[in-house]
Design a protein that fits this description.
Length: 221
């Protein structure tokens, strides 16, 4: 899953309106920002295997540190505690941790059974929604557009760029999703890693336009 994670981050602004959208996007994408670093270091591995599923040519055969359930929970605790100390808010910390784990939960819906429960485990989870292109498109765009709608109802623009940028943000994500689904396979594993590291730009972008919008809800306690 790709754009669906951004949809969850956008929707989370309703729960913690005092928190930057950049922080929420970082949390929802945290595992996939760590993963390319482990790829480049040779600690985790992926194969380019066209036809592996209908929606992706990637065979995620070795990523227990970032994408096992235990690994995801561990990273969630680390990031949640960091934000607890930084913000002083347990609610923010819980939301940050939940967003990190949501990555694994949503991936378990779309991946074939390749998500380990813990490093070294032979038990792997995945419902295989990526085997249906139509179902992949539906769930991805429902999550992105639904999360976008919640974000736009939760905040109000305080400048012209604050009004335009969320729509552009969503549009660019949608275009990348379609390119991933219908474009050619990536040329190399290094190309995958560097393109994933480029997702950091979306963290920065979300922070920038969210700064130009004001929250209209107090949040959910």
């Amino acid at each position: 899953m790709f754009i669906g994670h951004y949809g969850i981050a956008l929707a989370a602004k309703r729960v913690v309106p005092e928190t930057s959208l950049g922080t929420l996007v970082l949390s929802a994408q945290f595992l996939d920002l760590l993963w390319p670093l482990f790829l480049l270091l040779g600690v985790e591995h992926v194969r380019i295997d066209p036809g592996n599923t209908v929606a992706t040519p990637l065979d995620f055969y070795d990523y227990p540190i970032t994408h096992s359930l235990v690994g995801a929970v561990g990273w969630a605790v680390v990031l949640g505690l960091l934000y607890r100390f930084r913000s002083g808010s347990c609610r923010v910390a819980r939301t940050i941790a939940a967003l990190v784990v949501s990555r694994w939960v949503l991936d378990a819906i779309v991946h074939r059974p390749d998500l380990p429960l813990l490093p070294g485990s032979e038990i792997r989870i995945g419902l295989g929604l990526w085997n249906s292109l139509a179902a992949t498109l539906v769930i991805e765009f429902v999550l992105l557009l639904g999360g976008g709608a919640i974000y736009l109802r939760t905040t109000r623009a305080s400048s012209r760029s604050g009004a335009i940028m969320p729509w552009l943000f969503i549009g660019v994500l949608a275009a990348i999703e379609l390119a991933n689904l219908f474009g050619p396979p990536p040329p190399s594993v290094n190309a995958i890693a560097f393109s994933c590291l480029g997702l950091c730009l979306f963290v920065w972008w979300a922070h920038r336009f969210d700064f130009r919008r004001r929250s209209i809800f107090a949040g959910i306690s």
